[in-house]
C-alpha cells in the first residue's frame, strides 16, 4: 500500500506530530509525504530525512499557507489518485483537512487510530475513550487520522526520501487567513512534554494559576495543562485544555492539581505513565486513576512541593 | 438568512458509558440521552445571530430514531423555528449524515450551517468538514467566535497553538467549540410553545442517499483499566517518590 502522510509544519519547522503519523503509515506500507505551503524547501528536506521516507511531494504555493482546508483538500484529493491511504496526525490541522479529503474521495474517515490491526483494520477510541472499537473499512482508499500518543515517533534522521515538486491546485477562493494568536513559549509543547503540570477550577483565578502552577512547572521543566473548567474561566488560554475535546497527552509524569477527574478530562491524560493528583476531596475521581495522591489544600501543598524539589 | 443546525441525540455527558459484555457495543438501554453538548452551543449561536438580526429562520435537523424528536423539541424550545427529523434506526456514519444534510441544504438553501465539532459518542469530528466538501463551501471549524458580515463570515478558531481567524464567503459551514457561547436553558413557557412548532418527518430514502456503512465494527472493548494507587501522607512522601522516579 502507498500512503501519503500530511507533513505538519510551522515557521519552517516540521512538527513532531508528523513523526507518529509516519510510524502509523509505515505499518500500512510505503511512506510518501506531502509538504504544502510557500518557501517550504527546508521542511521538505527535513521530511526527506525522516526514517522510512519515500517520495516527498512538495506543493509550493502561498494558497497552502496556514493549511486552509478549502485549498489543501483538493491538492490531497488529486494526489490520492496515486496513493492508497491518506494519513494525517489528529491535530487541529489534521482534523480540519482529512474529513474534507475523505468526503471528496467518497470514503469514511477513520478518526484518531490507536493501532493498525490489519490492512484495513484499526482500533480507535469512542465515548471519550471509555470504549475501544475495532473497525474495518470497506472503502477502496483509506483516510486516517492518527493519535500521536499511541504511536512511537519515527526517527527524524536517517531517511533518504526523494523530493519531487507537484503542481498547485490553486486557491479555491472560498476562504482566507486573517490573523492568528499563537502563544510563544519556551515550555515544552503539551503533546510532546515529558512532564505536565495541570491545573483545574480550584486555582480560582489566572493570577493564582500563574502563582501556584508556573513555579512547579518551571522546577520540573514541565509543560502546563488545564481542565476545561480552568480554560472556560479564563485562567489560561484554550490551547492548554487536556481532554476528550482538547489535547490528548501521555507524558511520563502528569500532575493534576485541583482537578476533579471528569471522564472528559481523564480521556485526555489517563495513558500517562505516572499520574499524581493533589486534591482536597479524598473522593475525587482523579484518585481512581492516580498512582500517587495527596489529599490536601493545593494552596499549601503545591508551594511546599515546589520548595522541596 | 436561514441557518440550519444539525443536532444529534447522544448519551448524556454525565453518564459513564458501559461496554457490553459481548463486545457488540456500548450499553444504551435505560441510559439518559441528551442533545450532543456541542450542538447545544450551535443552537445557541444560531439564536444569538437571529436575535442580532443576522438571521431570520433557524431549522434544526436530526438524523436518527423517533426518540431524536425529543432532541429536536429541545432545539425548538431553545428557540429554533422548525425541525426536520430524518428517521432511521440504523447506525449512521458521518459520511452518510453529511450526504443527507447536503440534500437538505439543497432544498432549504441556508446561508450558514452550524454543527458541533464532535459528537461525544463516536468522537468522529468529521461531519461538518465532510458537508463543506460535498457542498464546495468554506469551513470554519472549532469556532470560538463567529462574526457574520456582508456576504462573509469571520471565524476565530481554537487551534493547537492558540487561535486562528479565517474569513469565509457565505454560504459556509461552522463547527462549534466549547468557548463559543454558553447555551441557554429552555424556559417552561418555551418548552410548551415548542410542542406546536412544525416538525417534519422524513426518511433517508426521501433524499435518495445510500446510508450503508463503510466501516464495520467487529469488537468494542474496555480500555486497559488503571488501578488506583497510593494516597501519600504528606508532601515529603511525594518528593521521595518523585526522586525515586528521577524527576527531582
Ligand atoms: C462536551 C464536553 C466536552 C468536555 N471536554 C473536556 C475536556 O476536553 N477536558 C476537560 O478537562 N474537561 C472537559 N469537559 C468538562 C468536564 O466535564 C468537567 O466539567 C471539567 O473537567 C471539570 O474541571 P475541574 O476538574 O477543573 O473542575 P471541578 O470538577 O470543579 O473540580 C475542581 C476540583 O478541585 C478540588 N479543589 C477545590 N479547591 C481545592 C483546593 N483548595 N485544594 C485542592 N483541591 C481543591 C475539588 O475537590 C474538585 O475535585 C467537557 C465537558 C463537556 C460537556
Ligand atoms: N445523526 C446526526 N443527526 C444530526 N446531526 C448530526 C448527526 N451526526 C452528526 N451530526 C452533526 O455533526 C457534528 C459532528 O459529529 P461527528 O462528526 O459524528 O463527530 C455533530 O455535533 C452534529 O452537529
From TrEMBL, chain A:
The Electron transfer flavoprotein alpha/beta-subunit N-terminal domain, residue ranges: 3-181
Cofactor note (record): Binds 1 FAD per dimer.
Keywords for this protein: Electron transport, FAD, Flavoprotein, Transport
Binding site for FAD: 201, 227-228, 241-245, 258-265, 279
Name under which the protein is recorded: Electron transfer flavoprotein subunit alpha
Pfam families on file: ETF (PF01012), ETF_alpha (PF00766)
GO biological processes: fatty acid beta-oxidation using acyl-CoA dehydrogenase
Job description of the protein: The electron transfer flavoprotein serves as a specific electron acceptor for other dehydrogenases. It transfers the electrons to the main respiratory chain via ETF-ubiquinone oxidoreductase (ETF dehydrogenase).
Assembly notes: Heterodimer of an alpha and a beta subunit.
Molecular function per GO: electron transfer activity; flavin adenine dinucleotide binding
Cofactor(s) listed in the protein's UniProt record: FAD
Source organism of the structure: Parasphingopyxis marina
Family according to the record: Belongs to the ETF alpha-subunit/FixB family.
UniProtKB/TrEMBL annotation, chain B:
Name under which the protein is recorded: Electron transfer flavoprotein subunit beta
SUPFAM superfamilies linked: Adenine nucleotide alpha hydrolases-like
Record key words, sorted: Electron transport, Transport
A Pfam family that the UniProt record links to this protein: ETF
Organism for this UniProt entry: Parasphingopyxis marina
Disordered: annotated span: 195-227
Assembly mode: Heterodimer of an alpha and a beta subunit.
InterPro entries: ET-Flavoprotein_bsu_CS, ETF_a/b_N, ETF_b, ETF_beta_N, Rossmann-like_a/b/a_fold
Residues covered by the Electron transfer flavoprotein alpha/beta-subunit N-terminal domain: 23-211
GO molecular function: electron transfer activity
Family affiliation: Belongs to the ETF beta-subunit/FixA family.
Amino acid at each position: 500500500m502507498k500512503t501519503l502522510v500530511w507533513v505538519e509544519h510551522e515557521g519552517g519547522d516540521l512538527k513532531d506530530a508528523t513523526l507518529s503519523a509516519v510510524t502509523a503509515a509505515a505499518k500500512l506500507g510505503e511512506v510518501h509525504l506531502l509538504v504544502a505551503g510557500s518557501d517550504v524547501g527546508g521542511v521538505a528536506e527535513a521530511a526527506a530525512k525522516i526514517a522510512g521516507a519515500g517520495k516527498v511531494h512538495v506543493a509550493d504555493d502561498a494558497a497552502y499557507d496556514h493549511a486552509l482546508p478549502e485549498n489543501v483538500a483538493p491538492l490531497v484529493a488529486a494526489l490520492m489518485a496515486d496513493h492508497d491511504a491518506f494519513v494525517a496526525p489528529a491535530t487541529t490541522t489534521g482534523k480540519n483537512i482529512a474529513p474534507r479529503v475523505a468526503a471528496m474521495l467518497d470514503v469514511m474517515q477513520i478518526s484518531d487510530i490507536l493501532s493498525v490491526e490489519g490492512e484495513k483494520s484499526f482500533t480507535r477510541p469512542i465515548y471519550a475513550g471509555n470504549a475501544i472499537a475495532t473497525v474495518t473499512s470497506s472503502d477502496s482508499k483509506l483516510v486516517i487520522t492518527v493519535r500521536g500518543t499511541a504511536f512511537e515517533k519515527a526517527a527524524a534522521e536517517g531517511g533518504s526520501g526523494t523530493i519531487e515538486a507537484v503542481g498547485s491546485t490553486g486557491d479555491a477562493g472560498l476562504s482566507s487567513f486573517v490573523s492568528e494568536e499563537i502563544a510563544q513559549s519556551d515550555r515544552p509543547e503539551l503533546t510532546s512534554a515529558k512532564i505536565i503540570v495541570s491545573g483545574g477550577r480550584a486555582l480560582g483565578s489566572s493570577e493564582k494559576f500563574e502563582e501556584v502552577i508556573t513555579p512547579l512547572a518551571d522546577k520540573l521543566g514541565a509543560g502546563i495543562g488545564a481542565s476545561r473548567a480552568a480554560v472556560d474561566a479564563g485562567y489560561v488560554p484554550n490551547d492548554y485544555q487536556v481532554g476528550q475535546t482538547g489535547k490528548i497527552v501521555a507524558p511520563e509524569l502528569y500532575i493534576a492539581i485541583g482537578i476533579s477527574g471528569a471522564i472528559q478530562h481523564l480521556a485526555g491524560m489517563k495513558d500517562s505513565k505516572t499520574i499524581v493528583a493533589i486534591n482536597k476531596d479524598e473522593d475525587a475521581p482523579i484518585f481512581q486513576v492516580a498512582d500517587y495522591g495527596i489529599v490536601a489544600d493545593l494552596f499549601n501543598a503545591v508551594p511546599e512541593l515546589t520548595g522541596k524539589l | 438568512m436561514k441557518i440550519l443546525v444539525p443536532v444529534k441525540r447522544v448519551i448524556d455527558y454525565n453518564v459513564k458509558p458501559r461496554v457490553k459484555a459481548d463486545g457488540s457495543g456500548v450499553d444504551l438501554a435505560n441510559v439518559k440521552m441528551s442533545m450532543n453538548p456541542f450542538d447545544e452551543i450551535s443552537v445557541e449561536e444560531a439564536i444569538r445571530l437571529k436575535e442580532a438580526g443576522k438571521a431570520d429562520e433557524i431549522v434544526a435537523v436530526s438524523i436518527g430514531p423517533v426518540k431524536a424528536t425529543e432532541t429536536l423539541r429541545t432545539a425548538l424550545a431553545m428557540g429554533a423555528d422548525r425541525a426536520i427529523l430524518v428517521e432511521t434506526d440504523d447506525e449512521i456514519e458521518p459520511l452518510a449524515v453529511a450526504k443527507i444534510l447536503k440534500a437538505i441544504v439543497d432544498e432549504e438553501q441556508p446561508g450558514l450551517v452550524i454543527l458541533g465539532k464532535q459528537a461525544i459518542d463516536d468522537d468522529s469530528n468529521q461531519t461538518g468538514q465532510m458537508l463543506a466538501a460535498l457542498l464546495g463551501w468554506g469551513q470554519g471549524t472549532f469556532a470560538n467566535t463567529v462574526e457574520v458580515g456582508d456576504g462573509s463570515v469571520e471565524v476565530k478558531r481554537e487551534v493547537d497553538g492558540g487561535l486562528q481567524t479565517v474569513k469565509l464567503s457565505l454560504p459556509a459551514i461552522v463547527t462549534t467549540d466549547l468557548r463559543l457561547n454558553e447555551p441557554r436553558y429552555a424556559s417552561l413557557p418555551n418548552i410548551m410553545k415548542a410542542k406546536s412548532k412544525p416538525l417534519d418527518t422524513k426518511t433517508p430514502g426521501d433524499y435518495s442517499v445510500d446510508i450503508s456503512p463503510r466501516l464495520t465494527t467487529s469488537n468494542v472493548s474496555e480500555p486497559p483499566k488503571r488501578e488506583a494507587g497510593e494516597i501519600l501522607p504528606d508532601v515529603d512522601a511525594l518528593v521521595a517518590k518523585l526522586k525515586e522516579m528521577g524527576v527531582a
